[in-house]
């Protein structure tokens, strides 16, 4: 980590909290308070090492993560309160932490993207994690205003164990020509009450991330892991269509990514949402407002899909 990288991180965090303020999710004072509470440093030197919780969130590379834990273990040797956790999404918590000395004070905390908005944190109990550590992690998660769920160190933990096979089946439906990706998204939003369809979700989390998880699960040779490679996804990834991060993905393929969604045609007779300036039509002329909201025809206002 160098100063340039720290500056990139600081700017990204500032942009993220300012966006929350613009969306009226937080007060203006919280923007400075949040930024001032973060100590940006190229060294792992905390202000105090009393009751320290170290959350490792470097890229999903086993060797890099192990190296970091080996160095941290050396640095905090003799400190019997420090807790070490990894934020890994797809690697084995146990395998990452082999170089951690106090195994009873080691586990996982899996946050969700975008972290400032997503309430869930999966607390991962490694075989060696003590109950005292689990309790401390539960307390920390509650203190930062999130909701913790407990899971063993199993592939995908809870959310991804269910989501990865679900996204995979959605892609296979498109590959077989059963339905379009737009209709599958609409079906899951309006029929299953999901706030986002599987393709919108893949665009948000990154098609490369999904591919990476599929490959690592296939390498585990575990028959209970329900995954298959997708030629279509592999082709999209090789073409740089990774979703929002590259501005191209499922949505952009049909020219309906973000603000470039199909505008409502003049022939559409559905009432226009008065509270929403950007809206577009899905193939069935169902009006969808920006931010994934839908038009409530009774009140004429936009409301979240989840309230439909
Ligand atoms: N992106 C997600 O949606 C998401 C969600 C939950 C968990 N995770 C997990 O979080 C971790 C990071 O993922 P990400 O998407 O934020 O990756 P990222 O590449 O966006 O960020 C990783 C950060 O680590 C820094 N870094 C790289 N090598 C380092 C080193 N040797 N020492 C210190 N810092 C180093 C990089 O500069 C970068 O800022 C992964 O384990 C991933 O599985 C990601």
Verbal overview:
There is one protein chain. The chain is of the alpha/beta class. The chain folds into four domains: 1-43; 48-152, Rossmann fold (3-Layer(aba) Sandwich), CATH 3.40.50.720; 158-260, N-(1-d-carboxylethyl)-l-norvaline Dehydrogenase, domain 2; 261-308, no CATH class. The chain has eleven helices and nine strands. It has helices at residues 3-22, 28-36, 62-75, 93-96, 131-143, 159-176, 181-192, 198-205, 207-219, 231-238, 250-253; strands spanning 53-56, 83-86, 106-111, 120-125, 147-152, 279-281, 287-289, 293-296, 301-304. Strands 1-2-3-4-5 form a five-stranded mixed sheet, with helices on both faces. Helix 1 (3-22) packs antiparallel against helix 2. The longest helix is centred in the N-terminal third of the chain and has 20 residues, at 3-22. The model is unreliable at 253-262 and 282-286 (pLDDT under 50). Bound molecules: nicotinamide-adenine-dinucleotide (NAD). The site of nicotinamide-adenine-dinucleotide (NAD) has 17 residues, from helix 1, helix 3 and strand 3. Keywords: Fatty acid metabolism, Lipid metabolism, Mitochondrion, NAD, Oxidoreductase. It is found in: Mitochondrion matrix.
């Amino acid at each position: 980590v160098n100063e340039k990288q720290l500056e990139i991180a600081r700017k990204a965090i500032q942009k993220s909290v300012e966006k929350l303020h613009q969306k009226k999710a937080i007060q203006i004072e919280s923007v400075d308070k949040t930024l001032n509470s973060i100590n940006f440093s190229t060294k792992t030197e905390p202000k105090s090492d009393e009751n320290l919780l170290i959350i490792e969130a470097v890229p999903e590379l086993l060797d890099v993560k192990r190296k970091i834990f080996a160095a941290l273990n050396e640095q905090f040797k003799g400190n019997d309160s420090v807790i070490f956790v990894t934020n890994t999404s797809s690697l084995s918590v146990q395998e990452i932490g082999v170089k951690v000395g106090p195994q009873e004070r080691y586990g996982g905390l899996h946050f969700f993207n975008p972290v400032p908005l997503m309430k869930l944190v999966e607390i991962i109990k490694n075989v060696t994690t003590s109950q005292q550590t689990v309790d401390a992690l539960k307390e920390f998660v509650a203190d930062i205003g999130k909701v913790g769920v407990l899971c063993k160190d199993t592939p995908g933990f809870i959310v991804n164990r269910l989501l990865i096979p679900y996204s995979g089946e959605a892609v296979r439906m498109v590959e077989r020509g059963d339905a379009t990706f737009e209709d599958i998204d609409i079906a899951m939003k309006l029929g299953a009450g999901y706030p986002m369809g599987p393709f919108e979700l893949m665009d948000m989390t990154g098609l490369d991330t999904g591919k990476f998880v599929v490959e690592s699960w296939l390498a585990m040779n575990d028959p209970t892991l329900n995954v298959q490679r997708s030629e279509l996804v592999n082709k999209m990834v090789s073409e740089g269509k990774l979703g929002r991060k590259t501005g191209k993905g499922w949505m952009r393929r049909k020219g309906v990514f973000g603000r470039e969604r199909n505008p409502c045609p003049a022939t559409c007779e559905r009432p226009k949402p008065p509270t929403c300036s950007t809206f577009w039509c899905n193939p069935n002329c169902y009006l969808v407002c920006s931010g994934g909201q839908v038009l409530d025809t009774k009140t004429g206002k936009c409301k979240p899909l989840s309230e439909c």
